[in-house]
Amino acid sequence: MSAPDADSAAALEVRDLAVHIGGLVALAGISFQVPVGAIVSLIGPNGAGKTTAFNVITGFMQPTRGQVVFRGRDLARLTPDRIAALGLVRTFQRTSLFAGCSVFDNVLTALHLRGRVGLLGALLRLPSLRREEAGLRAATREILDFVGLAGRADETAGNLAYGEQRLLGLAIALAAEPTLLLLDEPAAGLNPSETESFKQLVRRVRERGTTVLLVEHDMQMVMSISDEVLVLNQGSIIAAGPPAAVQRDAEVIRAYLGTGKRAAA
Amino acid sequence: MDQFLQHVLNGVVLGGTYALLGIGLTLIFGIMRVVNFTHGELYAFGAYLTYLFVALLHLDFFLSIALAALAGFLLGALIELVLLRPLGNADTDTVMLVMIGAWIAMQNAEQFVWGGVAKLVPSPFPQDPLIIGPVSVLPLRLFVLAATLVLLVAFYLLIDRTRLGTAMRATFQDRDTAALMGVDVRAVYTLTFALGSALAAIAGALLGPMFLVNPTMGNLVGLKAFAIVILGGLGNIAGATIGGFVLALVEEFGAGYLSSEYRDALGFLVIIAVLALRPQGFFALKGRIG
Amino acid sequence: MSGRIGGALLLVAMATLPLWMGDLYVLAILTSTGIFIIAAISLNLLLGFTGQLSLGHAAFFGIGAYTSALLSLGFDVDIGLADPVVVAPKPVWIAFLGAVVVSGLFGWLIGKLAFRVRGAYFVIVTISFAEVMRMVALNWVDLTEGPMALNNIPPLSLWWPGRGVITLATKAQAYWLVLTVGALCYLLVASVVRSRIGRALVALRENEPLARSVGVRVTHYLVVATVVSAAIAGAAGGLYAHCVRIVDPDVFLFIYTVTMVIMVVSGGKGTLAGPVVGGLIFGLLPQALRGTAPPEVQWIVYGIGIILIVFFLPRGIVPAFAGLARLRMPRALRPSAGVGS
Q1: Contacting residues of C for A176, CB less than 8 Å apart
Q2: Fewer CB within 10 Å: C terminus or N terminus of chain C?
Q3: Does B79 map to a domain?
Q4: Residue C266: helix, strand or coil by DSSP?
Q5: Domain map of chain A by residue range?
Q6: Residue A86, CA distances (Å) to A8, B171, C201, C218, C232 in order
């Protein structure tokens, strides 16, 4: 997996982001920053607005108000595919895969942005196509090795065990070469050993230069890998800072009685 | 001005039956999300049965129409039970293909049984038009208008005041919640399909005597029904009612003032235009069923 | 690999057919079946691989047929300008290319529309589109001769280096041309499907939000799929015009679209071999059954047949048999180089 370019101003800046749905205030005007190369976690009780924030940041939803700035670029009104092409990639809360395709093909498909050959090249079967395909296949093997699914490459995605499916979801997102990776409850439904493996993976992703923003309920995971924790409650950020500080914050404890056991998947 | 009023009257008469057709389809399409290709065939079925009862069995005209409607109801129920229920939650493609298969089988069965020659359904009304001020109207058409208005009112009462109607509305809003609240969703589906089919059959029974009855009459009508549903918004009964009248008037005026040859094309152009400009239909804001 | 060898053998066998098949009638049947198979292959790209429920495919077929016919016959039409538009007759191969281009253009329009109008609504729009085309063909008599049909369309001709333009007047020659175009279209679609483009299309079919999240531009690829699909259908229409040599508005009938859909779905949508298998069955079956029962009864059987296939062989014949025989069939995204497992 290639490292991001030297100009890795992978900072995400969210300014006064608000989302009103019907009469409900899903996000009440939040602001925060994600520094380059950091692992930042967004936590909060159910319904606090975490997935809404993700949806808005990645272009699946339009905000009522506010700005999302990624690497110095305003993401207003950009479509999800454009945003992904800029380097901001997400995973989905409920496992999202190309269920009918093999594991290998899932990742190969997700390497879409890395390919250049267009319709004409495909129709004419140019040599550049063959070279590119070989490169993409090699990259697929590399990514599958990274997440540990190399042995399952030929399996149909829909037949994978739940934990393996979550790994595949991560592999798909990594294939899109993110400079900022948004993980939506990556540990949901994983048993403790799977969660531990996933934690290690997230650390290794960061080591390769990708900034990570994750939404998570598993407090143990959050506290052990995050550089910074943001606490969302009822659409507003009520605390922000290093894990230790947030854990002791009275308001957080009051709003959110997470004690280190993760919420049910 | 006379021409104008005449077109309005013709449009209203036709519109009533179009409204019944549209309501039948918007129920099925809206509640069950089924692209019902057999809707036009039920229309033809209603027309052919009326022909059978009136011309061949010499039953009373009004009784024949009622029987045709009942037969349409039963056929609809049969189709739902045999073809749709076993499919369960299959995806749209699959359901669509099954409906296409049923449509092909039904239409060719009709062709096989009745032959390709158009049939005329005799009506008990006098053939001379009544002159009412600036417009003239055949007594048959007045009957059709009256009948459709009565049926529309009856239908609204069904949806609004009866338990079945409430169950249907609940299923439309949120199937799973309705099921949790004790609505027998599978029964609602069967009754919805049967009711929608009965409405198509009645429309055919009423329009049969006005026009000729032939095996392909269902095709164009089926597509027009979709035009009406799209115009009025999916699952929107009031929208389908208005849409039926609007389409009929557009056809009447289009044929009268623009070109009679492209009359039938107008329905399709309406579909394409509405979907391109305002996909949710013109009346989506008016709310859902009822 | 065995799939490719089998396909190549089949192609060779088909190519030698006119050498030993004396019955010209059978040859003609195979030729027209071949034309429908090409149309089915094009529909499969849109319906099977991209998952777009387009039920107006006869429109592209018909547009191709009319365009090729009109360009090869020449026409003059009054469209309200000072002088009528006059187009002199063009050589058939130019008319044919014109058919491909014009159909592709309409495909572009529909592709743009598809993005705004999804699912069951798109089905309705595409059906309506074909019906509108039929009515235009029926009523714009000035251009299309309406129900009187375009007659005496010149036969297929080919430009061969060294010999100039040769007319393909015999049934055997027409057969070979259709077989060649068919094989070419099959290979074109196979190339698209096995490329990054094909993967993007399947991604749209399988899981659109996920596809978007990895950068697949939805409108762009929907348009690509419809343009290629429409262009190939237009080619089939062009072949039809010059083989049958009469084109009337019936070419837009919904029943032709339905025939193509049956071929694709029964054969196996989303597989490369599906439309070929389905096309052979449903192209040849009516001929085999001819005379044994009235046409209406045959259609009743087809209607019931579709229902049975949907219930019992939901993925179509090719996947069912491939599963049975454990063949490695050329499925869309199978990696040709095995990954160590």
Answers
A1: 213-215
A2: N
A3: yes
A4: helix
A5: 100-175
A6: 12, 43, 21, 16, 35
User: How close, in Å, is residue C150 to chain A by CA atoms?
Assistant: 34
Q: CA Rg, chain B, in Å?
A: 19
Task: Residue C218: list chain A partners with CB under 8 A.
Answer: 81
The answer to whether the Cβ–Cβ distance between A118 and C197 falls below 8 Å is yes
Answer yes or no: do C121 and B111 touch at CB < 8 A.
Answer: no
Instruction: Determine the structural domain holding residue C65 and report its residue range.
Output: 26-253
Give me the CATH number covering residue B42: 1.10.3470
How far, in Å, CA of B76 to CA of B71, rounded?
A: 8
User: Residue C276: enclosing H or E segment and its boundaries?
Assistant: helix C274-289
Report yes or no on B125 lying in a domain. no
Residue A261 CB neighbour total at 10 angstroms = 10
Q: Which two tokens stand for residue B93?
A: 């493609």
Enumerate neighbours of B (3 or more CB pairs within 8 A).
C
Q: How many interface pairs between A and C have CB atoms less than 8 angstroms apart?
A: 117
- Work out the pLDDT band at A264, boundaries 50, 70, 90: very low
CA–CA dist A173, A51 (Å, integer) = 17
CA distances to B70, B179, C41 from B167, in Å: 22, 10, 45
State the Cα–Cα distance between residues C154 and C45, nearest whole angstrom. 30
Asked if the structure places residue B14 within a domain, the reply is: yes
Q: Which of C128, C136, C138 sits opposite B272 (nearest CB)?
A: C128
Q: How many domains does chain C have?
A: 1
Q: Residue B7 is part of which domain span? A: 2-90+102-107+132-286
Tell me what the mean pLDDT of segment B38-42 comes to.
Answer: 94
Give tens-digit pLDDT for B247-274. 898 888 888 777 776 777 777 777 777 7
